[in-house]
Design goal:
Blueprint lengths: L2 H9 L5 H16 L11 E10 L5 E7 L4 E3 L1 E4 L6 H13 L5 E2 L6 E7 L2 E3 L2 E3 L2 E11 L13 E8 H7 L3 H20 L1
Parallel strand pairs: 1-9
Antiparallel strand pairs: 1-4, 2-3, 2-10, 5-9, 6-9, 7-8
Helix pairs in contact: 4-5
GO molecular function: hydrolase activity
Family: Belongs to the Nudix hydrolase family.
Keywords: Hydrolase
């Protein structure tokens, strides 16, 4: 079990009640569930997401995700990898076709516990479960070529910050995740 990730999450400064409660749940699972980095952990498993911004941090990269039928951030399952920043970068490259993606910071940008409804993936039913998610702020060049990943998404595009929130058709994500990420980005850019 990654003690460095536990330390990073423990030291992470939450910004609201959602993050405070989700942080406690993620730490409990990291401490008590030795399978949490694997999808075989059927009730909850670790994931990493990315809020990918362009060079001047005025736009966000989104994909049109098949399972959610919505524009959404990029990310995926840890699948045994405990370096979640590495997972986030790998997922962004796979889902967008981008070759160059770099962290704006190696620090955790946000924490979320996300519900995933049961769905069909690769012809098999996946039961409803939780994603214990760590989000990183990443950067890519807006002019670099984007490519869809047909088995996961049908679109990849840059959106101005507020348009990224509006593009999502998932009200919970709009209100509790994407608006929060944008607010944190704006606050960070003021420093």
């Amino acid at each position: 079990m990654s003690t460095s990730l536990i330390t990073e999450i423990t030291q992470y400064q939450t910004v609201n009640e959602q993050e405070e409660r989700d942080k406690a749940l993620i730490l409990a699972e990291l401490t008590n569930n030795p399978q949490v980095f694997l999808r075989e952990s059927s009730l909850a498993h670790m994931t990493a997401s990315a809020w990918v911004v362009n060079e001047d941090k005025t736009k966000v990269l989104m994909v049109y995700h098949h399972i959610y039928n919505s524009w959404s951030w990029l990310g995926g399952h840890a699948d045994g990898e405990e370096d979640l920043l590495k997972v986030a970068i790998k997922e962004v490259k796979e889902e967008s076709g981008l070759k160059q993606v770099s962290p704006v910071s190696t620090n955790i940008f946000s924490l979320e516990v996300l519900t995933v409804d049961g769905h069909i993936k690769h012809g098999q039913y996946v039961s409803s479960h939780l994603h214990l998610n760590v989000t990183y702020l990443l950067e890519a060049k807006e002019k670099d070529k984007l490519v869809i990943k047909p088995d996961e998404n049908s679109g990849v595009a840059w959106f101005p910050l507020e348009k990224a929130v509006e593009a999502s058709t998932e009200p919970w994500f709009q209100k509790h995740v994407y608006q929060k990420l944008n607010a944190k980005l704006v606050e960070r850019n003021k420093r």
